[in-house]
Write a structure and sequence with these properties.
The structure is a single chain. This protein is an alpha/beta fold and about 240 residues long. The protein has a single domain, classed as Spore Coat Polysaccharide Biosynthesis Protein SpsA, Chain A (Alpha-Beta Complex), CATH 3.90.550. The strands form three sheets. The protein has a seven-stranded mixed beta sheet with strand order 1-5-9-6-10-8-7. The longest helix has 20 residues. The relative contact order is 0.15.
């Protein structure tokens, strides 16, 4: 499921095109979350949830429209950039179902330096930052619904949900990423790589482009977060976050 909204309709053609290019043998149902838009775009069904109340409220309404017991969450501004190995994905998915895990992150972020390795995965602890995210992450649908609070934005969800569902098993992959993507939009503006990608794919958009200073600022913030995750243990990171909050 690609989580989006009508304001980001311009991202759909490139997301769908690259998804189908890099995962052509995907045999699962494919959805785009929208507000008033409906119909299909290529092999994706557009699910209308009505007024754009909040990120979490929209997602709850969308999840209630589908029958699947599991859902892979993706974001509209993170299109695929490398082929997906369907057999590898299926083996990870079967592992999730076999172990009755509630959530499985299929990219090796965030970094977690403690926790034993289980079939190429590490369990994230309650309180770990980004224990639950929407970035190429598999969920049991019922578990995800119990984590969502209607008033929350995507950032609120990632920040607050970590302390919910304390009985849930949230795993992060430690072997090989299943998905590779390009972060094309930050705060409503195209990154410079995103702009280059849109030009390459001949996709038109009226969005502005981050200037060098803005992009450098976001890159430094990302680097700082990465170093923080590598240099400090999961337990210490949780203590620091609790002090900040």
């Amino acid at each position: 499921m690609c989580i989006s909204c009508d304001k980001y309709e311009d991202t759909w053609p490139i997301f769908v095109s690259l998804f189908n290019r890099y995962w052509p043998d995907c045999s699962y149902s494919k959805y785009i979350l929208a507000n008033e838009q409906s119909g299909t775009i290529s092999n994706f069904n557009i699910l209308s949830v009505g007024q754009d109340i909040s990120w979490s409220s929209n997602l709850i309404e969308c999840l209630n429209q589908i029958e699947e017991e599991y859902v892979l969450l993706c974001l509209d501004d993170l299109p695929l950039m490398a082929p997906v190995d369907s057999r590898y994905f299926k083996s990870r998915f079967e592992l999730m179902k076999k172990n009755s895990w509630d959530n499985m992150k299929l990219i090796q972020k965030p970094v977690s330096l403690i926790g034993r390795l289980i079939s190429g995965f590490t369990e994230m602890a309650v309180g770990d930052r980004y224990r639950f995210t929407a970035v190429y992450s598999l969920y049991k649908k019922e578990s995800l619904l119990s984590l969502l609070v209607r008033s929350e934005s995507a950032w609120d969800f990632e920040k607050n949900a970590t302390n919910r569902g304390k009985e849930f098993k949230s795993m992060v992959i430690r072997s090989k990423d299943v998905f590779t993507f390009n972060h094309t939009i930050i705060r409503g503006k195209l990154t410079r790589k995103g702009k280059a990608l849109y030009n390459k794919e001949s996709v038109q958009t009226d969005r502005g482009v981050l200037d060098y200073k803005q992009e450098l600022w976001y890159s430094l913030k990302k680097l700082r977060l990465g170093l923080f995750q590598v240099l400090f243990s999961s337990r210490l990171r949780r203590r620091i976050y609790s002090l900040k909050n």
